[in-house]
Amino acid sequence: MRVLILKDYETVSKEAAAIVKELVTEKPDCVLGLATGSTPVGLYREMIRMHEEEGLDFSRVTTFNLDEYYGLSPEHPQSYRYFMNENLFNGINIKKENTFVPDGSVKKEAVEDSCRMYEERIKKEGGVDLQVLGIGGDGHIAFNEPGSSLASRTRLVALDEQTISDNSRFFDSSDDVPKFALSMGVGTILEAKEIIFLANGAKKADIVAAALEGPVTGMVTASALQMHPRVTAILDEDASDSLLKGSFYRFAADAGRKINKKLF
Ligand code: PGA
Questions:
Q1: Cα(9)–Cα(237) distance, rounded to whole angstroms?
Q2: Is residue 38 in contact with ligand 1, taking CB distance under 6 Å?
Q3: Fewest 10 Å CB contacts: which of 147, 167, 209, 236?
């Protein structure tokens, strides 16, 4: 895994945006996998800036989001579809019909079909070229909570207590946080051709170390990224604080920069 330890959140966001820009420039019809939460907001802000100021063209890009609360309509202000429109899609020239977010408003009877169709659609578009990930306080990627299968596919999941409490900051109270979600599986995520994994802040330090340096386990689903050949973890100083091999990662990143190669 390539681990980049950078000064602060802004630098992390810019580094991630540079990787997105490189891909969109090289492959204008690429498929991006996108995440919600506070972590990628700076990346999305930078993508909007690159579109406005540098003319970065998203008109042929397709996107798939990781997850959506089950039971919220796409118009609900806390839905992830709404979040994506507000934080990214409305600010770039992407075609809305090429942006996919699992549909949290499907009826119970239609959930399995809807999840299967989401997976099929990803395949039909040629798979995800670059997946953006954050990490939850409980080590989740997407809503793959502790105990998820590392071979899981897009499905209906229950949210962990910790996730409900972490996400209650966006709702009036934790009672209002949906208790279920539709989420890409760990197996789905691992099929992306390349992954950027972002984390910032001291609150994430211990779980980041568990994910990157601990055992691969369904109890910390982000640890499954150790099984993927092209992951770049982009961390700010605070989020990297509990890593055992921080000085080696810095050395390797510098060495890679010197020879102009990504050393995974
Ligand atoms: P955050 O959430 O970016 O708001 O910390 C991350 C996640 O739950 O995946």
A1: 9
A2: yes
A3: 147
